Amino acid sequence: MATLPMIPELLRQLFRTPATNAFPAKYLPSSVTEFLAKVGRGEAAIHPPVPVPKDFRGKITYDPTGCTGCSLCAKVCPAHAIEVLKDEKRIRIYVSQCIFCSQCTDICPKGSLAMSDAFLLADENRYADHLIVE
Amino acid sequence: MSDDPQKKMTPYTVPIGPTHPALKEPVMFTFQMNGEQILKADFAPGQTHRGIEWMGMRRNPVQIVHLTDRICGICGVSHSLAFARAMEQIMEIEVPERADYVRTIIAEFERIQSHLLWAGVAAHELGFDTLLHLTWRVREQAMDTIELLTGNRVNYGIIQVGGVRRDFTPDQFPAIEETLQYYSDLKSKLLKIFLEDKTIQMRCRDCGVLSYDDALKLCTVGPTARASGLNMDVRVDYPFAAYGDLAIEPILPDAYMGETRGDVFDRIVVRLLEVDQSVDIIRQCLDRMPAGEVIAEPKLAKLLNQFKKAHGEALGRHEAPRGEVLHYVRMDGKEHPTSWKVKASSYSNLMSWIPMLEGEQIADIPIIVASIDPCLSCTDRVAVVRSGERGIMTKEELHRLSVEKTRRLSA
Ligand code: SF4
Ligand code: SF4
User: Fold this and answer.
1) In B220-263, which ranges are continuous DSSP H helix?
2) Is B198 on the interface with A (CB under 8 A)?
3) Which residue of A80, A89, A113 sits with most ligand 1 atoms within 8 Å of its CB, as the best mutation to test the pocket?
4) Is B258 in a helix, a strand, or coil?
5) How confident is the model at residue B389 (pLDDT cuts 50, 70, 90)?
6) How would you label B147-163 residue by residue, b for 16+ Cβ within 10 Å and e otherwise?
7) Closest by alpha carbon to B155, among A13, A31, A103?
8) Fewer CB atoms near the end CB (10 Å): N or C, chain B?
9) Does residue A55 belong to the interface with chain B, where contact is any CB pair within 8 Å?
10) Dihedral of CA B253/B259/B264/B268: which sign?
11) What domains appear along chain A, each with residue ranges and CATH number?
């Protein structure tokens, strides 16, 4: 009964399209910056990022206009990612600390917070401008 | 090792770990070897203690629920569910029935992806990387469904004290059905590829045997216990969530193989069959799922206030993919728990390594260690500190030593 049942499966796989997502460029360009510049000029095409599902929890967005500084959001934030600026009645969110639980958006009485579908957030500096939302 | 140079050097000691390419999890093994054969095995966990319970005792339960998602990288719902059930018992919250079904369905999808992940790792440990890629490819279907249902692939964030945070929408059901069909169709293929393969039989049959008695005495749980013939499953023995309404039988290897040997092979059999069992459970849930609310208290601010009135202690249990997980919580009328203790499933299973490993060969270590599907970052709850010494060198201490040596040499 001992056989090699994986062999037919492997042969079949030869004729299938790969299951993995495509990299932005098909082959690693000799210079990434040059390639991106080319993409900018419309001379080269890039594989678009994989679409995210509906109601995906990505980078947080904050609309300060309605915010009353009630600090409820900071109270339920598991990661202590929200700083309440008491005097200005505003908050500041450190995205590098956020764990994308979306709990603050649930509790906010003014609907000032929401989750976007941005997920390409890697940066060497955890306090980079795009990682601090205020 | 003996200090006497006259003495023969056997048994000699082979340390493996704390981090080692052959182990997917950080744990320190010390083997007494005679040639290729393991005479004695010992291990020391505690390398990945992160202080999550300490963090939890300074946070309110609504915050902790999302910390529990992160105790384990695979079980995104098991810990949350066990913790939420402990809180619900303390606060006497009645979870809406539909929420119980949503919880059950997500928990079973989690079991599917976890067991497939494990099967891939096991294949990889045997050097069968094509099979690793195949299982991880088919695992993606479950991951995608979880992402669709909860919003994220790994840290689902779906559990809340008193229910779940998201209900299924009608447009999601076709996708669920598609996934279930996908795994039903796959069942015979996976069983064939894993169980009829020559390599897997050679390496896993009668390797890493855990006898029924040892499994019982060492209090093993989950698939590790069932593969040794122990008929136990929290879902059946102490039904919770929707499991009480469903027809479930613990999966034992003799039902499929005709006998129980308690070896690595039997652990593969149990886990593969449980993938199919999970598909069946989800089907049953979809058939019976009642309509209605999915959370007892939708207003988070009100829930926060109720925590301040909560007094008492409770245990929350759940049959995670690796076995029973248990959360103990004590609330004393403050917003944060006075005590919170997590017992991950691997905690109960680690001791079974010793009888499994002794007598086997050094090359069998990776597959035997992997065969209980250990999850050490879940398990490590303490770091031993003796009179201020942890026995671990930090980067700073190493640096200091290095500077001292330079000074010594140049003096
Ligand atoms: S909960 Fe909403 S209104 Fe209150 S501080 Fe946070 S963002 Fe502002
Ligand atoms: S999404 Fe969660 S972790 Fe992030 S800021 Fe909101 S509450 Fe904090």
Assistant:
1) 222-227, 234-237, 253-257
2) yes
3) A113
4) coil
5) low
6) bbbbbbbbbbbbbbbbb
7) A103
8) C
9) yes
10) negative
11) 20-50 (no CATH), 60-133 (3.30.70.3270)
Mutation for B interface: A10, A55, A117, most B CBs within 10 A: A55
Reported as a pLDDT band with limits 50, 70 and 90, residue B4 is low
**Residue A111 forms contact with B (CB below 8 Å):** no
Tokens of B156: 């689902």
Indicate yes or no: CB of A6 within 8 angstroms of CB of B137. Answer: no
> How would residue A125 be classed by pLDDT, with cut points 50, 70 and 90?
very high
In the numeric block, the tokens 């004290």 are attached to: B161
- For chain B, domains (ranges, CATH) are 52-347 (1.10.645.10)
Which site among A59, A101, A113, A116 would you substitute to test the B interface, given the most B Cβ atoms closer than 10 Å to its Cβ?
A101
Residue of B401 and B195 predicted with greater confidence: B195
CB contact under 8 A, B151 and A57: yes
Residue with tokens 């500096």: A125
- Predicted-assembly ipTM surpassing the 0.90 threshold: no
